[in-house]
Specification:
Number of helices: 10
Strand order of the largest sheet: 3-2-1-6-7-8
CATH class of one domain: Alpha Beta
Helix content: 40-55%
CATH architecture of one domain: 3-Layer(aba) Sandwich
Strand content: 5-15%
CATH topology of one domain: Rossmann fold
Largest sheet: 6 strands, parallel
Radius of gyration: 18 Å
Length: about 260
């Protein structure tokens, strides 16, 4: 889980809004001249909101779905994640195998209602609203289970299911989830690969993420596009956990003059 209610949130400054407006305007003009439909892409957990949707849904499923899972499924997941993140993330989707897509989406909606109000970053909501008003096609690409992210993205950002790209199972003709995870798995380079399969050769006018694992996704931006790094963990946590992954992204991006907004310093 990401959120920490004891830490205040720094929303976008007026100066950052001015910079965003100017650079987005310039990129939109370029897209208009070239006839390319503009697109923007965001990570989800730690980027749009201060929580982990996939892990929230996993905990909800443990408590409500009666699945046959290891004795301590939470510890099982975290131990697996420490040695093999890709496999662990895929497993969170695979535990729903055998269920209908309708059922899984209904569970995800119940989970979202149980977690209301969801701790979104208000500045990000306003940024997406601005992009939507300008006709920008917006995608969220996440290493969480796609179905877990969908209800939050719809409720708080107005994004339909088809704009969410995440880890999901193959679906059989009866609309039932198979145990096979759809490729590419949306982790690290897989995020960029999955986005490319959806938008083709278009280059986003804005890309945004918060961890080292988002580098490949952020790099999909057009040459003059905005590459925005998000910091959610304070500098005091830069040596451990999520704070370390965010610090690694900042070290990488600063050398390339990527933008940075710290919701928490």
């Amino acid at each position: 889980m990401l959120s920490n209610a004891n830490l205040s949130v720094n929303e976008f400054t007026d100066e950052l809004w001015r910079r965003l407006d100017q650079h987005l305007h310039d990129n939109l003009q370029d897209c208009q001249k070239s006839g390319e439909a503009p697109v923007a892409v965001f990570d989800a957990d730690g980027t749009l909101w201060d929580e982990d949707a996939g892990e929230a849904f996993f905990r909800w499923q443990i408590e409500n779905c009666g699945f046959e899972l290891p004795a301590d499924p939470w510890q099982h997941y975290f131990a697996w994640k420490a040695r093999d993140p890709l496999g662990a993330y895929a497993w969170l989707a695979q535990i729903s195998a055998g269920q209908s897509l309708t059922q899984v989406r209904d569970w995800a909606a119940q989970c979202a209602r149980a977690h209301a109000p969801w701790p979104i970053f208000e500045s990000q909501r306003l940024l997406l609203k601005k992009l939507q008003a300008w006709g920008v096609e917006i995608y969220v690409v996440t290493a969480s289970v796609k179905y877990a992210v969908e209800p939050f993205a719809l409720e708080y950002f107005g994004l339909p299911h088809e704009r969410i790209i995440g880890i999901e199972c193959e679906i059989d003709p009866r609309d039932v989830l198979r145990n096979q995870v759809r490729l590419p798995i949306t982790w690290r380079e897989g995020k960029a690969q999955a986005l490319r399969s959806r938008i083709g050769e278009r280059q986003p006018i804005l890309t945004c993420g918060n961890t080292y694992g988002d580098i490949a996704l952020i790099e999909t931006a057009r040459p003059k596009g905005i590459r925005l790094m998000i910091q959610t963990r304070p500098d005091s946590e830069a040596d451990r956990g999520l704070g370390r992954e965010e610090a690694k992204l900042r070290a990488h991006g600063r050398a390339l003059n990527w933008w940075l907004h710290s919701f928490r310093r």
